[in-house]
Amino acid sequence: MKVTLWVGLTLTVLAMVAPYVDRAEGQVLAGHILDGYPHYSAAQVDSAVTTYLVILTSVGVVGVVGWLWTLRAVDGGRPWTPWLAAALFVGAVTVALSGLTVKDTSGDVGLAPLLAWIEVLPCVAGGVAVVQLVRQRTEMRRSLS
After folding, report:
1. pLDDT for 129-139, tens place per residue?
2. DSSP letter at 1?
């Protein structure tokens, strides 16, 4: 189970780094913004990309803290760990779905779909982790009965 938590943490860091790699190499986000706002100047596109970088980095930092908190709770044998993981999972899925579905004023989704799908990857690990934590707690309760 801890492996799943470490995989989730790693995926979160990768998802946080992906927009920076895109900015340096791919320009998927900049192209997406320019498609929605063809009248934007290069400076305006750059400003919008920077705004997304700040938002996605902030979300990533919260995600990293969540994974580390959950790892610490698992190490400490805290009985509320499955609840913590479930709450963090719900929050992460909500943010990820927002990235996939929320439209901006151009009528298109605000975040480039490729980057939005990358943001979903840590949620997969989160879902697996929640299931593992609930099963572990259930097994512990059975063994105590």
Report:
1. 999 999 998 88
2. -
